[in-house]
């Protein structure tokens, strides 16, 4: 009986008829649905970053982050708590809604006792030495819809969930160069309207990175990613972000997003 | 019935069996794999190679392909057109398959890190929207800004852009090193397709490019010339014997030997190295010599006994030749095995081993297949020159004349030999050990021009590395260790050929200065370990996660210090590597900081040093083995020593000519002596064997030894002409190593031939060694009047 069941289940799961149970949606509508997810006005959370190189060596960093929207502008401040030698290092960012406008960034190095303004990073640059790019961190699982021309590739199964598969090709050469990709494939779970797996292909069309949503939760009514993994297939380096103690309720003072506060620390 | 009668009786089974064996060994041919890397020459367990692999693993470094743009105008590479070309090529090279677009480094990819009054700017030199650079991309003013920025950035000056601004590099790491050749070709195509204004040059070089290209370059020429050599040898065989039978049968023996040896090489999993081309030459020379001697004896028999049945004539020829051929094979095998055992380099060891196997196969085939084929050959025709009715042919007459003169002027022979000996010793004493892979290319080859041009303008593309290991993780946060590394870099910069160094310390100093408003006074190592840790963090935060991987490992415990050397010459390497090692022994030999020299330069040093140390010992051992075997087979120390003389002179002359002509002893040229031994010992043993035969029957006098020349002397002459002529063809090659190879092989066999026909008979008459004459022979010998031949 069991082999028959297995056979049936294989046929059933891999059958297009089954996958087609998801209502057809065009790619733009899927991306629009992803982008409508509410992030909350403010957020306080801890996060842990585990970086692993190709020989399997691991480094761990821990930080506390505050984020708040000021209209369309998003301000973020991150304070490092681990490792000890960088404890107190702070990173303040003002992200402007206009993708063409350069963000403002400041860094505080406690051993130097100085706040330094640092030049805006390219959107495709890696975020604080991790395998995530600034763009991915800034968009928090959403997609800048003006960057790509989207195409629906169909539907599929991923870890037991039905997903929409959407492919995006950079809208122009400048964007392709800035983001360092030739195309991106998102696997979007319509249950949560979050991308469960995103594959980035480099400018030669080789699979460069994969970002996987490994945990999520509804916290204070907001759907929140709690664990994300980014793997760089060319360097063998990977980064895992684990978010804890996410809190959308407690007020985040606007004064925390200042150079003076950066200097003072947590 | 003698052994050879029995063998000829079973000729068809013998031929069938031989072809089965040949077929079985040929199965191994497709399994042969090429390994033309420089690293193949080093024992895989050698510390230098182990460390290089460790460094490559830890720091993710491969041998790259380097493109240089050179513009010697006043604006140098900073003029807008040059910068545009750099940007265009960077994009195009990044788009090539097998090139990692994220690991292409050039002015178009690198960031300028500069301190301002309130902060820090990290931005691309050729980026469009910049805060630090005010002028738009594509203007002269932007070029000037970049020039000033580079001048203020010691890490890039000299390594990414020439100090005088005349050159700039695009460095591409290859994803799959086995694709180096394809990648080089693709890069060359891009470069050739780029329109260049007057005064701008593009060059492509780098170890990644050289390795692949070298093998193709040599193979292409060898595959053109080896068939030419085979054709010439065949023509000489036809000339010697005026018989297609001789040419075809000899070529079959050569083919069987070569296919067998290389097939076994494939079956054993041994790679085909660059120098294995030389083994091919050696085996052809040895196999053809065996055939020439058997055929000479065969026709000599037909000449003296024209009515003897063909099969009996073959058996008789074999009866006469099995002994000298077995003896030459034994001595040659001894020489090859000694080379195999004594060499420290795996390709040379393989050369010795498969040389010995090849000689053995040539012997087996000459003893079995050759007589079987001769006995089944349909034609009974005896070439006109060997018919008894005819007088001696031209070559016999020439050799007879030569013989008369030689034997009548012993003082001239010995005096000339002594003179040659003295001159050769002087020449050989001038021999130097050196190797620079780039010299394997003709001076007009793009890769040669590129190497010289880039090394003249930049710090150098040859890497001498030091792996510095701290006691524990985060050791590199300690200012004390960083200062020691700084001192190490200063020391390395004093070494000849070293024009610049880089390490993580340079980044720390640059960042320290940048976070202090760009004040040059802060281009120092901070005193606070926390600040160092935070500067590392700052760098990490502004770069790719693996960007730093080439300078420091993940735990901040190990750092790579890299010096750029502007030449790859061993004569330079053997100064700087031991000097650096002595420094490391002195300053970096504790648990707190342990330093090891590594990198391409260090590996090459050990590789060539191995040749320097082992070559002489290896050649001497090989010579000694040959002499010892000759002594054993002739059961006489004197005769054995005499037999070693042609070999000794061949080797000495090869070294002397190399010394006089300034040809250094290097990887390829170190093989010449071994090849000389392999080819020249045949002349000596055939000569001594024939001298003994004559001596035993008729005594050793000027008169009796005249008989040596018409048959054996003639055979040796054609043996010499075939090998020297065949491989002298290589001297017309366009590849410098093959030219040297061909000429020196020709020199070696010429010397061996000349010494064999002049000095050996002269000394035999003078010394009258007992082993050459005494003895009542028990064999029912083929006794003819020596003058009848």
From TrEMBL, chain A:
Signal peptide start-end: 1-19
Domain Uncharacterized protein TP-0789 per the UniProt entry, residue ranges: 73-264
Pfam families: LolA_like
Keywords: Signal
Organism superkingdom: Bacteria
Name of protein: Uncharacterized protein TP-0789 domain-containing protein
CDD domains: LolA_like
UniProtKB/TrEMBL annotation, chain B:
Domain SSD: 246-376
Sequence intervals crossing the membrane: 12-32, 248-267, 279-301, 322-345, 351-377, 406-433, 616-634, 641-663, 669-688, 716-735, 741-767
Topological relation to the membrane, as annotated: Multi-pass membrane protein
Cellular compartment(s): Cell membrane
Presence of the UniProt keyword Membrane in the record: yes
Domain of life: Bacteria
Matches recorded under InterPro entries: Acrflvin-R, MMPL_dom, Mycobact_MmpL, SSD
Pfam families for this protein: MMPL
Keywords of this entry: Cell membrane, Membrane, Transmembrane, Transmembrane helix
UniProt xrefs under PANTHER family: BLR2997 PROTEIN, MEMBRANE PROTEIN MJ1562-RELATED
Protein name: SSD domain-containing protein
